[in-house]
Structure formats: structure tokens, C-alpha cells
């Protein structure tokens, strides 16, 4: 289980350019930069209404319940996640989208004005992370560049300060978001679509935001940012490391690669995530069954068995679930990716198969994405194989071991084969769904134009149809032109999306 770390400012913190923000480590005002105007003003008003007790704890003058305050905090942290990703996206734009994992940096990267234009030293510091610069004998590698860095240290520090603060904010977000996820997971007894639905969506939205933020963070040059900043700080502060250096080294190293860090950090909520994903399985199966949607009238204003009845009241609850199915699919894709042990539940393999077969990528933010199947094969499959090996070694009761071994074997087969299936079938699956939605929404337009008074009784069905249509439009543009590599071949295969 990931332990929450507290922040203790050192006596010399005033020498750090980020000392002002660092003192607000736990305060709500820390996140104002990342919130929209409405949310930021709400935070300010709540802060002004809070009274600090003598022991430093915050007491609410309104006397509201802790759970209600937690939900407000969850909603705020979800928006903070969006703000963090927007800032990371902006940094990548400025740096011309560097390959931080492969340490490949273009000329535009060095001319952007963020990093000193001394590629040899900066790239070496990044490649050798987490080694300290004092062990790298930089004067032997490029003494001219090192002297130049020394002369312009203060100027370069100013250029890097906003982005170092971003790293500090990512670290703080990790600690506070994990604390919230653990709190909700352990205090709410039931998290199901039809029980505590609002809390469930807040919990899972924060969970997915936490995963996306940390996956996206790998795409920015975190290692170079920290190593170069610390070198410059030492050059201008008599060889002293910046105060937060070792904590950031630990944070970045624990998320290198990010999926291993996420799997470890979220292990404590893994069973809860598994329960949620099992609960949304029926809605996912229904959304994938085009024939059933059409034949049973889930998206039709007419009753499926009684055509003379103009109000379709046959499936009100299932229609409501269909409106949330886009969120459910994201929960499944990210949930099993960071909680791979939950794939060993008997029903999980079918749920995962349906969603994996329809997608090649997971969108992180705007046009940033990860290749879904490659990550499942790199970070989920080894965990499944480990479970299979343990079951075979007979560490559990024989009957349970046989079942676990059988399920692990099926999951292994599914992950190994579903990438090929997705390449061949995802376009066809979504094209059929788009045709269905075009037909059903077209009928709705004609029907409600003729019978506008019947719109209200059928409004949930309309919302579901529009939500599914929005999902298909987003899927189309997220996958158009995607190049996905086959696991058994070195060549890259373009995935053509046919409208």
C-alpha cells in the first residue's frame, strides 16, 4: 500500500524559488492555478468560511458532513487533474513534443528557451537518472557547457521554475488524490450503478483522472527537468541540492514506468475496482449488442412488443445505463490496466474482451493517447502469468488453484489474441453502431417532430442515443489514422477507419 508522505519545509527553504508555493502544500489555494474561474471562486469562498482550530485542523463553520466535504474535494481534484494535463500539454507544445522515454530531442526543443542549449550535458543527466550529477564527471564530458551553465545559472533557473513547480504539483496531486481514493473506497459501503450512483461516478472519475495524469506525465521530460534544475541550483548555491530534490527523485523513479507505479499505488483499491467493473458489465454487453438494441427497441420511442403504444416504457433503467456507457468503457480499459489482478475474476474476461476488441488506444488528453494493447501485453500479461505460475505451484487449495489456473490461462489467451481481433474488427463494430444510431436518431427526429408532447416521457432514451452518438464521433476521430504495431511483427500497420 502506498504510504502518504507529509511535507516538511527545511530551514533554508527561503533560498528555493518555489518556497512560497511549497508552504501551501496542503491548502486548497495551492490548486487555484489549475481550476476554472467558477471552481476557483468556490474554493476561495469555502476557505473564507472555514475557521482554523488551535491545533491547526480546519473546522467547517457550516457543520456539513465529512462525506459531503469529501465529495466537493473529489470534484475539485478531478478538475485539478484536467488543469495539470493542460499544463503538461502546453509544455510539450513548447518543446515540440519530445520523446522523453527514448531521450530524443529535436533542435526546436533546445531553442524553445526552457532548457539550456547544451544537449550533451542535459541529455546525459536525463539518461543517467537517478544518478546525482556529482557522480557523472560533467567537466570531462563538456567543460565549456558546464562553465556556460555556471555563468547563466540564475537565468536558466528562472526559465525552469514554472515547470519544476509542475513536478511538485504532480507529486502533491498524487498524495492527495490517493488519500481521497482510499477514503472513498473504505468509507462507502456500496458503490454500484443503482446505489450511490453519484458517489460511484465521482470515485471512478477521480480514479481515471489519477491514472491519466500519471500516464501523461511520462510524456514530459521529467528527469531532465529535475536533474538540470538541481545542477543549476547547486552551481549557484555552493553545491547544495534544492530542498525537494530527493523527494522528487523518489517520486519520478517510482513512476518509471508509470504503469508499474500505478499498479503498486492502486493495489489497495483493486478489489473495489473489480466489483465496480463487474457491476457495469451488463450495460457494456448491451451497448455492444447492436442486434439486441435494434430488435428490442432500446433506442426506439415505440414499445418493442406493443407498436400501438407510443411511449416506450419497456427499458427505462437500462436506457439510463446506456447514457453512461462511455464512462463505463473507460473504467474497464483503465481499471484492468492498473488493477490487473481483477481480470482473474470469472466474469471479468468477457467484460474486458468486449471493450478491448473495440479499441486500439486510450485517450489521455486532447490528442495525446497510449497504445492500449501494447501496454496490456507489457504490464498486465506478466502479472497474469505470475498468477498462473503461483496457482500451478499449488500454494492454495487444490480446487481453488485449479480454478485460478484455468482463469489465468484464459486471460493469457485473451490478451495475446485480442490485439489482432481489434485490428480486424474494431472498424466493423463501430461502423455497424454508427449505422444503427443514424437510423434510430433519424426516426426519433421524425417522431418527436410529429409528437412533441411525447418527448418528455422518452427523454432518457433520447439522452442515451445522443450519448452513444457522441461516443462514436469521439471514437472515430481518436482512431482515425492511428498506427498500431502488431506484437508479432516489426512493421507498423495503419488502421483505416471507414465512415
Which features characterize this protein?
499 residues; 2 domains; two-stranded antiparallel sheet; 19 helices; disordered N terminus
Order of helices and strands: HHEEHHHHHHHHHHHHHHEEHHHEE
Low-pLDDT stretches are 1-15, 17-25, 50-65, 487-494
* Major sheet details: 2 strands, antiparallel
Characterize the overall form: globular
Mean of all residue-level pLDDT scores: 85
| Sheet with most strands: strand arrangement | 1-2
CA radius of gyration = 26 Å
Distance between the termini: 46 Å
Number of helices: 19
What is the number of strand segments? 6
Strand content: under 5%
List the domain count as a whole number: 2
Structural class: mainly alpha
Question: What's the helical proportion of residues?
Answer: 55-70%
Biased composition (Polar residues): 7-20
Protein name: Protein NAP1-like
Family: Belongs to the HEM-1/HEM-2 family.
InterPro entries: Nck-associated_protein-1
Secondary-structure map:
Layout (H helix, E strand, L loop, with lengths): L18 H4 L14 H12 L1 E3 L5 E3 L5 H29 L12 H5 L7 H9 L10 H14 L1 H35 L9 H21 L4 H15 L8 H10 L3 H8 L4 H19 L1 H6 L20 H8 L1 H14 L9 H9 L4 E5 L2 E4 H21 L5 H53 L8 H21 L3 E3 L6 E3 L5
Antiparallel strand pairs: 1-2, 3-4, 5-6
Helix pairs in contact: 3-7, 3-8, 5-9, 7-8, 7-9, 8-15, 9-10, 12-15, 12-16, 14-19, 15-16, 15-17, 17-18, 18-19
